[in-house]
Design a protein that fits this description.
This protein has about 170 residues and is mainly α. The protein has 7 helices and no strands. It has helices at about 1-10, 10-30, 35-60, 70-95, 100-135, 135-155, 160-170.
């Protein structure tokens, strides 16, 4: 029974699940058949909540473990900032012009590029290191903390353009 609980709360599994959701939302934002504005709103909230929860609850804890690359953890935080900046650029286009315009498509591709690069790098470096070097019980504790913080940000409407501006400015 305890193993199931750890599996459900494993911080690595939770982060990977969010990554797959983000990739699905990218597909929806690119699709002319989908409600692209709705997909953007969902993506915006998830990206901000996910990144803030990783930085406040996960990254610092992982840096304490041997064989988890501290430089990669710090680089991950820098890539969150790049992703947030690309997100803000797309939100501003969506606010000022039509979803699906040429500028929307260009900003969307900038966002996809920035975030996909980060997801790939984080999975290969930080998350593999965490899976191999952080005990199951500690990963479950980090998973619970990650979820709590992520939900707190989601409940606060973290994906709105004004909040994303504040995050980008470091407010």
């Amino acid at each position: 029974m305890a193993a199931d609980k750890h599996e459900n709360q494993d911080v690595v599994a939770l982060i990977l699940k969010d990554h797959r959701t983000m990739e699905d939302l990218f597909r929806r934002m690119r699709s002319v058949e989908a409600n692209r504005a709705d997909a953007l709103a969902t993506f915006s909230a998830l990206l901000v909540a996910h990144g803030e929860a990783e930085e406040s609850e996960v990254y610092g804890a992982l840096k304490r473990f041997k064989d988890v690359d501290n430089e990669e953890v710090e680089h991950g935080a820098e890539e969150h900032a790049e992703g947030n900046e690309a997100l803000l650029a797309l939100l501003e286009v969506a606010e000022a012009s039509e979803v699906g315009s040429d500028e929307w498509d260009a900003r969307l591709e900038d966002l996809v590029k920035a975030v996909s690069h980060h997801l790939d790098e984080e999975e290969r470096t930080i998350l593999n290191g965490a899976r191999e070097n952080v005990p199951d019980e500690r990963r479950a504790e980090l998973g619970a903390a990650f979820l709590r913080e992520r939900e707190r940000h989601l409940a606060a409407g973290c994906g709105g353009i004004e909040n994303v501006r504040a995050v980008v400015r470091g407010a």
